[in-house]
Fold:
Amino acid sequence: MSDRTLEEAASRAPAAPKASAQPVHVDAGDEGYSKDLKSRHINMIAIGGAIGTGLFLGAGGRLANAGPSLAIAYAVCGVFAFFVVRALGELVLYRPSSGAFVSYAREFMGEKGAYTAGWLYFLNWSTTTVADITAAATYAHFWSMFSDIPSWILALIALSVVLTVNLISVKYFGEMEFWFSIVKVGALVAFLLVGIYLVATSHPIDGHTPGLGSITDNGGIFPAGMLPMLLVIQGVVFAYASVELCGVAAGETENPEKIMPKAINSIMWRVGVFYVGSVVLLALLLPYTEYSADQSPFVTVFDKLGIPGAAGIMNLVVLTAALSSLNSGLYSTGRILRSMAMSGSAPKFTARMNRGKVPYGGVLFTAAFGVMGVGLNYFMPDDAFEIVLNFASIGILGTWAMVMLCSLHFWRRAREGRVERPSYRLPWAPYTQIVTLVFLVVVLVLMWSDGGVGRRTILFLPLIAAALVGGWFMVRRRVAEIATDRERAAAEQRD
Structure:
Protein backbone atom coordinates (compact mmCIF):
# COMPACT_ATOMS: atom_id res chain seq x y z
CA MET A 1 0.00 0.00 0.00
CA SER A 2 3.02 2.27 0.07
CA ASP A 3 2.81 3.59 -3.51
CA ARG A 4 -0.89 3.37 -4.13
CA THR A 5 -3.85 5.23 -2.74
CA LEU A 6 -6.51 3.45 -0.76
CA GLU A 7 -8.90 3.85 -3.64
CA GLU A 8 -6.52 2.17 -6.11
CA ALA A 9 -5.82 -0.65 -3.71
CA ALA A 10 -9.50 -1.32 -3.24
CA SER A 11 -10.21 -1.32 -6.99
CA ARG A 12 -7.37 -3.78 -7.71
CA ALA A 13 -8.05 -6.09 -4.77
CA PRO A 14 -8.83 -9.70 -5.76
CA ALA A 15 -12.26 -11.11 -5.23
CA ALA A 16 -12.89 -12.12 -1.63
CA PRO A 17 -15.58 -14.14 0.06
CA LYS A 18 -18.56 -12.26 1.42
CA ALA A 19 -17.86 -10.36 4.58
CA SER A 20 -20.54 -12.30 6.40
CA ALA A 21 -18.44 -15.42 6.01
CA GLN A 22 -15.51 -13.89 7.85
CA PRO A 23 -14.99 -14.84 11.49
CA VAL A 24 -15.98 -12.15 13.97
CA HIS A 25 -13.12 -10.76 16.05
CA VAL A 26 -13.53 -11.60 19.73
CA ASP A 27 -11.94 -9.41 22.41
CA ALA A 28 -11.27 -11.27 25.66
CA GLY A 29 -11.56 -7.96 27.48
CA ASP A 30 -15.28 -7.81 26.71
CA GLU A 31 -16.11 -10.79 28.93
CA GLY A 32 -17.58 -10.41 32.40
CA TYR A 33 -19.37 -7.08 32.06
CA SER A 34 -23.00 -6.48 32.93
CA LYS A 35 -25.41 -4.85 30.49
CA ASP A 36 -26.94 -2.41 32.95
CA LEU A 37 -26.63 0.82 30.95
CA LYS A 38 -30.00 1.80 29.49
CA SER A 39 -30.89 4.03 26.56
CA ARG A 40 -31.37 7.07 28.82
CA HIS A 41 -27.91 6.50 30.29
CA ILE A 42 -26.21 6.32 26.89
CA ASN A 43 -28.01 9.39 25.58
CA MET A 44 -27.10 11.48 28.60
CA ILE A 45 -23.53 10.11 28.63
CA ALA A 46 -23.22 11.29 25.03
CA ILE A 47 -24.50 14.71 26.06
CA GLY A 48 -22.29 14.80 29.15
CA GLY A 49 -19.30 13.88 27.03
CA ALA A 50 -19.83 17.00 24.95
CA ILE A 51 -20.26 19.33 27.92
CA GLY A 52 -17.45 19.46 30.42
CA THR A 53 -14.66 21.33 32.13
CA GLY A 54 -13.25 22.59 28.83
CA LEU A 55 -16.37 24.69 28.29
CA PHE A 56 -17.33 25.62 31.83
CA LEU A 57 -13.87 26.65 33.03
CA GLY A 58 -11.59 26.79 29.98
CA ALA A 59 -13.82 29.14 27.97
CA GLY A 60 -13.10 32.03 30.34
CA GLY A 61 -9.37 32.25 29.63
CA ARG A 62 -9.86 31.53 25.93
CA LEU A 63 -12.41 34.33 25.60
CA ALA A 64 -9.96 36.68 27.29
CA ASN A 65 -7.28 35.69 24.75
CA ALA A 66 -9.18 35.25 21.48
CA GLY A 67 -12.33 37.31 22.03
CA PRO A 68 -15.58 36.46 20.20
CA SER A 69 -13.63 34.50 17.55
CA LEU A 70 -13.57 31.66 20.09
CA ALA A 71 -16.99 30.67 18.75
CA ILE A 72 -15.39 29.95 15.36
CA ALA A 73 -12.74 27.78 17.00
CA TYR A 74 -15.43 25.81 18.85
CA ALA A 75 -17.41 25.33 15.62
CA VAL A 76 -14.40 24.09 13.63
CA CYS A 77 -13.22 21.70 16.35
CA GLY A 78 -16.79 20.55 16.86
CA VAL A 79 -17.04 19.41 13.24
CA PHE A 80 -13.93 17.26 13.58
CA ALA A 81 -15.08 15.93 16.94
CA PHE A 82 -18.28 14.83 15.24
CA PHE A 83 -16.29 13.07 12.50
CA VAL A 84 -14.32 11.19 15.16
CA VAL A 85 -17.34 10.04 17.13
CA ARG A 86 -19.22 9.18 13.92
CA ALA A 87 -16.28 7.02 12.79
CA LEU A 88 -16.23 5.34 16.20
CA GLY A 89 -20.00 4.87 15.99
CA GLU A 90 -19.64 2.96 12.72
CA LEU A 91 -17.08 0.67 14.34
CA VAL A 92 -19.34 0.18 17.37
CA LEU A 93 -22.23 -0.86 15.12
CA TYR A 94 -19.87 -3.27 13.38
CA ARG A 95 -18.82 -4.82 16.72
CA PRO A 96 -19.68 -3.31 20.14
CA SER A 97 -16.77 -3.56 22.57
CA SER A 98 -15.92 -2.15 25.99
CA GLY A 99 -12.36 -1.93 24.70
CA ALA A 100 -13.67 0.46 22.02
CA PHE A 101 -10.97 1.77 19.66
CA VAL A 102 -8.28 -0.26 21.47
CA SER A 103 -10.14 -3.39 20.49
CA TYR A 104 -10.57 -2.13 16.92
CA ALA A 105 -6.89 -1.18 16.73
CA ARG A 106 -6.06 -4.74 17.79
CA GLU A 107 -8.25 -6.15 15.04
CA PHE A 108 -7.09 -3.86 12.22
CA MET A 109 -3.54 -2.84 13.24
CA GLY A 110 -2.39 -5.65 15.50
CA GLU A 111 -1.21 -5.62 19.10
CA LYS A 112 1.21 -2.73 18.55
CA GLY A 113 -1.68 -0.58 17.38
CA ALA A 114 -3.81 -1.58 20.37
CA TYR A 115 -0.92 -0.91 22.75
CA THR A 116 -0.33 2.56 21.28
CA ALA A 117 -4.02 3.48 21.22
CA GLY A 118 -4.57 2.33 24.78
CA TRP A 119 -1.67 4.14 26.37
CA LEU A 120 -2.34 7.35 24.47
CA TYR A 121 -5.90 7.18 25.77
CA PHE A 122 -4.58 6.61 29.27
CA LEU A 123 -2.32 9.66 28.87
CA ASN A 124 -5.42 11.62 27.89
CA TRP A 125 -7.57 10.60 30.84
CA SER A 126 -4.92 10.34 33.53
CA THR A 127 -3.99 13.96 32.88
CA THR A 128 -7.63 14.96 32.42
CA THR A 129 -8.30 13.48 35.85
CA VAL A 130 -5.76 15.93 37.24
CA ALA A 131 -7.42 18.77 35.31
CA ASP A 132 -10.83 17.81 36.66
CA ILE A 133 -9.84 17.66 40.31
CA THR A 134 -7.93 20.93 39.84
CA ALA A 135 -11.05 22.51 38.37
CA ALA A 136 -13.15 21.14 41.23
CA ALA A 137 -10.80 22.73 43.76
CA THR A 138 -10.93 26.03 41.84
CA TYR A 139 -14.74 26.03 41.80
CA ALA A 140 -14.95 25.18 45.51
CA HIS A 141 -12.84 28.24 46.36
CA PHE A 142 -15.69 30.41 45.02
CA TRP A 143 -17.51 29.88 48.32
CA SER A 144 -16.02 31.56 51.36
CA MET A 145 -16.41 28.43 53.51
CA PHE A 146 -13.82 26.70 51.32
CA SER A 147 -11.56 29.64 50.51
CA ASP A 148 -9.09 28.86 53.30
CA ILE A 149 -8.85 25.14 52.48
CA PRO A 150 -5.78 24.32 50.34
CA SER A 151 -6.47 23.27 46.75
CA TRP A 152 -4.81 19.89 47.19
CA ILE A 153 -7.19 18.91 50.01
CA LEU A 154 -10.27 19.83 47.96
CA ALA A 155 -8.83 17.94 44.99
CA LEU A 156 -8.30 14.85 47.14
CA ILE A 157 -11.87 14.99 48.46
CA ALA A 158 -13.28 15.24 44.91
CA LEU A 159 -11.21 12.27 43.73
CA SER A 160 -12.18 10.13 46.74
CA VAL A 161 -15.93 10.71 46.38
CA VAL A 162 -16.12 9.98 42.65
CA LEU A 163 -13.76 7.00 42.90
CA THR A 164 -15.92 5.39 45.58
CA VAL A 165 -19.08 5.64 43.49
CA ASN A 166 -17.32 4.45 40.34
CA LEU A 167 -16.12 1.26 42.02
CA ILE A 168 -19.58 0.06 43.09
CA SER A 169 -21.10 -0.91 39.73
CA VAL A 170 -21.67 0.37 36.20
CA LYS A 171 -25.30 1.04 37.13
CA TYR A 172 -24.20 3.55 39.76
CA PHE A 173 -21.83 5.14 37.26
CA GLY A 174 -24.65 5.41 34.73
CA GLU A 175 -27.03 6.95 37.25
CA MET A 176 -24.45 9.44 38.47
CA GLU A 177 -23.58 10.45 34.92
CA PHE A 178 -27.26 10.66 33.98
CA TRP A 179 -28.03 13.16 36.73
CA PHE A 180 -24.77 15.05 36.24
CA SER A 181 -25.74 15.51 32.59
CA ILE A 182 -29.26 16.57 33.52
CA VAL A 183 -27.81 19.30 35.74
CA LYS A 184 -25.34 20.47 33.07
CA VAL A 185 -27.87 20.55 30.24
CA GLY A 186 -30.52 22.19 32.40
CA ALA A 187 -28.09 24.89 33.52
CA LEU A 188 -26.91 25.63 29.98
CA VAL A 189 -30.48 25.84 28.72
CA ALA A 190 -31.31 28.23 31.57
CA PHE A 191 -28.24 30.32 30.75
CA LEU A 192 -29.16 30.45 27.07
CA LEU A 193 -32.71 31.58 27.89
CA VAL A 194 -31.53 34.21 30.36
CA GLY A 195 -28.78 35.38 28.01
CA ILE A 196 -31.17 35.74 25.07
CA TYR A 197 -33.56 37.72 27.26
CA LEU A 198 -30.77 40.04 28.46
CA VAL A 199 -29.57 40.67 24.90
CA ALA A 200 -33.10 41.16 23.55
CA THR A 201 -34.00 43.67 26.28
CA SER A 202 -30.53 45.29 26.45
CA HIS A 203 -30.61 44.80 30.22
CA PRO A 204 -27.43 46.38 31.67
CA ILE A 205 -24.86 44.11 33.28
CA ASP A 206 -22.46 45.86 35.65
CA GLY A 207 -22.60 49.03 33.55
CA HIS A 208 -22.34 47.22 30.18
CA THR A 209 -25.19 47.05 27.69
CA PRO A 210 -25.53 43.58 26.12
CA GLY A 211 -25.72 43.34 22.34
CA LEU A 212 -23.55 43.63 19.26
CA GLY A 213 -21.88 46.65 20.82
CA SER A 214 -20.08 44.34 23.24
CA ILE A 215 -18.30 42.96 20.18
CA THR A 216 -18.07 45.89 17.75
CA ASP A 217 -16.98 48.40 20.38
CA ASN A 218 -14.24 46.14 21.69
CA GLY A 219 -12.21 45.20 18.64
CA GLY A 220 -14.77 43.16 16.71
CA ILE A 221 -14.74 39.39 16.24
CA PHE A 222 -10.94 39.29 16.04
CA PRO A 223 -9.86 41.94 18.58
CA ALA A 224 -6.26 40.72 18.58
CA GLY A 225 -6.18 39.30 15.06
CA MET A 226 -6.71 35.73 13.82
CA LEU A 227 -3.59 34.27 15.42
CA PRO A 228 -5.00 34.09 18.98
CA MET A 229 -8.07 32.27 17.64
CA LEU A 230 -5.85 29.73 15.91
CA LEU A 231 -3.67 29.28 18.97
CA VAL A 232 -6.59 28.53 21.33
CA ILE A 233 -7.69 25.63 19.11
CA GLN A 234 -5.31 23.35 21.03
CA GLY A 235 -7.28 24.05 24.20
CA VAL A 236 -10.64 23.88 22.45
CA VAL A 237 -9.84 20.32 21.38
CA PHE A 238 -9.66 19.49 25.09
CA ALA A 239 -13.26 20.67 25.47
CA TYR A 240 -14.41 17.82 23.24
CA ALA A 241 -12.26 15.19 24.95
CA SER A 242 -15.15 13.01 26.15
CA VAL A 243 -17.14 12.63 22.94
CA GLU A 244 -15.75 9.11 22.47
CA LEU A 245 -17.11 7.96 25.84
CA CYS A 246 -20.40 6.68 24.42
CA GLY A 247 -18.40 4.29 22.24
CA VAL A 248 -16.80 2.75 25.33
CA ALA A 249 -20.15 2.56 27.13
CA ALA A 250 -21.71 0.69 24.19
CA GLY A 251 -20.10 -2.52 25.43
CA GLU A 252 -22.23 -2.45 28.58
CA THR A 253 -25.64 -1.80 27.08
CA GLU A 254 -28.28 -3.90 25.41
CA ASN A 255 -29.17 -3.23 21.74
CA PRO A 256 -26.38 -0.72 20.95
CA GLU A 257 -27.40 -0.84 17.28
CA LYS A 258 -30.61 0.96 18.22
CA ILE A 259 -29.23 3.32 20.84
CA MET A 260 -25.91 4.48 19.44
CA PRO A 261 -26.92 6.16 16.12
CA LYS A 262 -29.42 8.43 17.84
CA ALA A 263 -26.99 9.36 20.61
CA ILE A 264 -24.12 10.09 18.20
CA ASN A 265 -26.17 12.03 15.66
CA SER A 266 -27.39 14.39 18.37
CA ILE A 267 -23.81 15.47 19.14
CA MET A 268 -23.69 17.83 16.15
CA TRP A 269 -26.61 20.00 17.19
CA ARG A 270 -25.46 19.95 20.81
CA VAL A 271 -22.12 21.35 19.69
CA GLY A 272 -23.91 24.10 17.78
CA VAL A 273 -26.29 25.02 20.57
CA PHE A 274 -24.32 24.50 23.75
CA TYR A 275 -20.76 25.36 22.69
CA VAL A 276 -21.04 27.82 19.84
CA GLY A 277 -24.32 29.30 21.09
CA SER A 278 -23.02 29.78 24.63
CA VAL A 279 -19.80 31.46 23.50
CA VAL A 280 -21.69 33.80 21.17
CA LEU A 281 -23.99 34.79 24.02
CA LEU A 282 -21.07 35.31 26.39
CA ALA A 283 -19.47 37.63 23.84
CA LEU A 284 -22.73 39.56 23.43
CA LEU A 285 -23.36 39.90 27.16
CA LEU A 286 -19.99 41.33 28.20
CA PRO A 287 -16.82 42.60 26.52
CA TYR A 288 -14.30 39.78 26.20
CA THR A 289 -11.93 41.66 28.51
CA GLU A 290 -14.31 41.03 31.42
CA TYR A 291 -13.59 37.29 31.39
CA SER A 292 -10.59 35.57 32.95
CA ALA A 293 -8.99 32.15 33.23
CA ASP A 294 -9.49 31.87 37.00
CA GLN A 295 -13.30 31.93 36.90
CA SER A 296 -15.98 30.25 34.82
CA PRO A 297 -17.37 32.79 32.30
CA PHE A 298 -20.91 31.71 33.23
CA VAL A 299 -20.22 32.51 36.87
CA THR A 300 -18.75 35.85 35.77
CA VAL A 301 -22.00 36.83 34.02
CA PHE A 302 -24.27 35.92 36.92
CA ASP A 303 -21.88 37.47 39.41
CA LYS A 304 -22.00 40.79 37.56
CA LEU A 305 -25.77 40.59 37.23
CA GLY A 306 -25.94 40.85 41.01
CA ILE A 307 -28.75 38.30 41.36
CA PRO A 308 -28.47 36.89 44.91
CA GLY A 309 -27.34 33.28 44.83
CA ALA A 310 -27.28 33.01 41.02
CA ALA A 311 -23.49 32.92 40.74
CA GLY A 312 -23.31 30.35 43.52
CA ILE A 313 -25.81 28.10 41.77
CA MET A 314 -23.94 28.38 38.48
CA ASN A 315 -20.70 27.60 40.27
CA LEU A 316 -22.31 24.47 41.69
CA VAL A 317 -23.23 23.47 38.14
CA VAL A 318 -19.70 23.87 36.84
CA LEU A 319 -18.44 21.89 39.84
CA THR A 320 -20.84 19.16 38.75
CA ALA A 321 -19.32 19.28 35.27
CA ALA A 322 -15.84 18.70 36.67
CA LEU A 323 -17.02 15.77 38.77
CA SER A 324 -18.87 14.36 35.76
CA SER A 325 -15.73 14.45 33.65
CA LEU A 326 -13.75 12.81 36.46
CA ASN A 327 -16.42 10.13 36.73
CA SER A 328 -16.25 9.46 32.99
CA GLY A 329 -12.47 9.29 32.93
CA LEU A 330 -12.26 6.70 35.68
CA TYR A 331 -14.97 4.65 33.99
CA SER A 332 -13.50 4.64 30.49
CA THR A 333 -9.86 4.04 31.39
CA GLY A 334 -10.86 1.12 33.61
CA ARG A 335 -12.45 -0.59 30.59
CA ILE A 336 -9.64 0.29 28.18
CA LEU A 337 -6.92 -0.91 30.56
CA ARG A 338 -8.74 -4.21 31.11
CA SER A 339 -8.90 -4.83 27.36
CA MET A 340 -5.16 -4.19 27.19
CA ALA A 341 -4.34 -6.28 30.26
CA MET A 342 -6.20 -9.29 28.85
CA SER A 343 -3.81 -9.15 25.89
CA GLY A 344 -0.71 -8.51 27.98
CA SER A 345 -0.01 -4.86 27.15
CA ALA A 346 -1.09 -3.42 30.53
CA PRO A 347 -0.31 -4.49 34.12
CA LYS A 348 -2.09 -7.74 35.06
CA PHE A 349 -3.92 -6.29 38.04
CA THR A 350 -5.78 -3.81 35.81
CA ALA A 351 -7.78 -6.76 34.44
CA ARG A 352 -9.27 -7.60 37.84
CA MET A 353 -13.00 -7.15 38.37
CA ASN A 354 -14.98 -6.88 41.59
CA ARG A 355 -18.39 -8.32 42.48
CA GLY A 356 -20.07 -5.37 40.84
CA LYS A 357 -18.41 -6.35 37.53
CA VAL A 358 -16.28 -3.21 37.62
CA PRO A 359 -12.62 -3.48 36.45
CA TYR A 360 -11.43 -1.97 39.69
CA GLY A 361 -7.74 -2.54 38.93
CA GLY A 362 -7.81 -0.16 35.96
CA VAL A 363 -9.98 2.38 37.79
CA LEU A 364 -7.58 2.46 40.75
CA PHE A 365 -4.58 2.71 38.43
CA THR A 366 -6.02 5.86 36.87
CA ALA A 367 -6.97 7.24 40.28
CA ALA A 368 -3.35 6.81 41.36
CA PHE A 369 -2.36 9.36 38.74
CA GLY A 370 -5.08 11.60 40.12
CA VAL A 371 -3.27 11.44 43.45
CA MET A 372 -0.18 12.71 41.63
CA GLY A 373 -2.40 15.59 40.51
CA VAL A 374 -3.17 16.30 44.14
CA GLY A 375 0.57 16.74 44.60
CA LEU A 376 0.71 19.05 41.59
CA ASN A 377 -2.00 21.17 43.22
CA TYR A 378 0.10 21.27 46.35
CA PHE A 379 3.29 22.49 44.67
CA MET A 380 1.84 24.49 41.72
CA PRO A 381 -1.79 25.41 42.51
CA ASP A 382 -1.87 28.32 40.05
CA ASP A 383 -0.45 26.48 37.02
CA ALA A 384 -1.72 22.92 37.52
CA PHE A 385 -4.73 23.22 35.21
CA GLU A 386 -2.86 24.65 32.21
CA ILE A 387 0.03 22.19 32.56
CA VAL A 388 -2.15 19.08 32.51
CA LEU A 389 -4.43 20.61 29.88
CA ASN A 390 -1.64 20.54 27.33
CA PHE A 391 -0.60 16.98 28.15
CA ALA A 392 -4.23 15.91 27.96
CA SER A 393 -4.41 17.53 24.52
CA ILE A 394 -1.54 15.31 23.32
CA GLY A 395 -3.43 12.24 24.53
CA ILE A 396 -6.63 13.45 22.89
CA LEU A 397 -4.92 14.10 19.56
CA GLY A 398 -3.35 10.65 19.69
CA THR A 399 -6.66 9.00 20.57
CA TRP A 400 -8.55 10.76 17.80
CA ALA A 401 -5.82 9.86 15.32
CA MET A 402 -6.03 6.18 16.30
CA VAL A 403 -9.82 6.21 15.92
CA MET A 404 -9.53 7.63 12.41
CA LEU A 405 -6.75 5.20 11.48
CA CYS A 406 -8.93 2.30 12.67
CA SER A 407 -11.79 3.72 10.61
CA LEU A 408 -9.52 3.99 7.58
CA HIS A 409 -8.38 0.39 7.91
CA PHE A 410 -11.98 -0.73 8.38
CA TRP A 411 -13.04 1.14 5.24
CA ARG A 412 -10.21 -0.44 3.27
CA ARG A 413 -11.15 -3.95 4.42
CA ALA A 414 -14.75 -3.30 3.51
CA ARG A 415 -13.69 -2.28 -0.01
CA GLU A 416 -11.75 -5.53 -0.24
CA GLY A 417 -14.81 -7.51 0.81
CA ARG A 418 -13.28 -8.76 4.04
CA VAL A 419 -15.77 -7.04 6.37
CA GLU A 420 -19.17 -5.47 5.91
CA ARG A 421 -19.84 -1.87 6.85
CA PRO A 422 -23.06 -1.25 8.80
CA SER A 423 -25.74 0.99 7.35
CA TYR A 424 -24.72 3.66 9.87
CA ARG A 425 -21.52 5.03 8.36
CA LEU A 426 -19.02 7.85 8.51
CA PRO A 427 -19.91 10.01 5.49
CA TRP A 428 -17.45 10.82 2.70
CA ALA A 429 -14.94 8.14 3.66
CA PRO A 430 -11.97 7.94 3.21
CA TYR A 431 -11.63 11.70 2.70
CA THR A 432 -13.20 12.47 6.09
CA GLN A 433 -10.57 10.41 7.89
CA ILE A 434 -7.70 11.94 5.91
CA VAL A 435 -8.86 15.53 6.44
CA THR A 436 -9.31 14.88 10.17
CA LEU A 437 -5.81 13.45 10.46
CA VAL A 438 -4.43 16.54 8.70
CA PHE A 439 -6.35 18.75 11.13
CA LEU A 440 -4.79 16.93 14.09
CA VAL A 441 -1.31 17.54 12.68
CA VAL A 442 -2.18 21.24 12.26
CA VAL A 443 -3.16 21.39 15.94
CA LEU A 444 0.28 20.07 16.87
CA VAL A 445 1.86 22.79 14.73
CA LEU A 446 -0.29 25.41 16.48
CA MET A 447 0.81 24.10 19.87
CA TRP A 448 4.42 24.59 18.81
CA SER A 449 3.68 28.06 17.43
CA ASP A 450 2.05 29.10 20.70
CA GLY A 451 5.36 28.94 22.55
CA GLY A 452 5.32 28.71 26.32
CA VAL A 453 3.55 25.67 27.78
CA GLY A 454 2.36 24.51 24.36
CA ARG A 455 5.87 24.35 22.92
CA ARG A 456 7.24 22.68 26.06
CA THR A 457 4.51 20.06 25.69
CA ILE A 458 5.56 19.34 22.10
CA LEU A 459 9.14 18.98 23.29
CA PHE A 460 7.93 16.14 25.50
CA LEU A 461 6.69 14.19 22.45
CA PRO A 462 10.06 12.42 21.95
CA LEU A 463 9.94 11.34 25.60
CA ILE A 464 6.37 10.08 25.20
CA ALA A 465 7.37 8.19 22.05
CA ALA A 466 10.43 6.74 23.82
CA ALA A 467 8.27 5.64 26.76
CA LEU A 468 5.84 3.90 24.38
CA VAL A 469 8.67 2.13 22.55
CA GLY A 470 10.38 1.12 25.77
CA GLY A 471 7.12 -0.10 27.24
CA TRP A 472 6.41 -2.19 24.17
CA PHE A 473 9.75 -4.00 24.45
CA MET A 474 8.87 -4.75 28.07
CA VAL A 475 5.49 -6.32 27.31
CA ARG A 476 5.88 -7.76 23.81
CA ARG A 477 6.93 -11.21 25.03
CA ARG A 478 3.89 -11.50 27.28
CA VAL A 479 1.66 -10.21 24.47
CA ALA A 480 3.07 -12.85 22.10
CA GLU A 481 2.62 -15.63 24.68
CA ILE A 482 -1.02 -14.71 25.32
CA ALA A 483 -1.73 -14.48 21.58
CA THR A 484 -0.16 -17.91 21.05
CA ASP A 485 -2.21 -19.45 23.86
CA ARG A 486 -5.40 -18.04 22.37
CA GLU A 487 -4.59 -19.33 18.93
CA ARG A 488 -3.90 -22.78 20.38
CA ALA A 489 -7.17 -22.75 22.34
CA ALA A 490 -9.10 -21.64 19.23
CA ALA A 491 -7.52 -24.44 17.19
CA GLU A 492 -8.47 -27.00 19.84
CA GLN A 493 -12.07 -25.79 19.77
CA ARG A 494 -12.21 -26.12 16.00
CA ASP A 495 -10.85 -29.66 16.21
In short: The domain at 35-401+439-459 is CATH 1.20.1740.10 (Amino acid/polyamine transporter I).
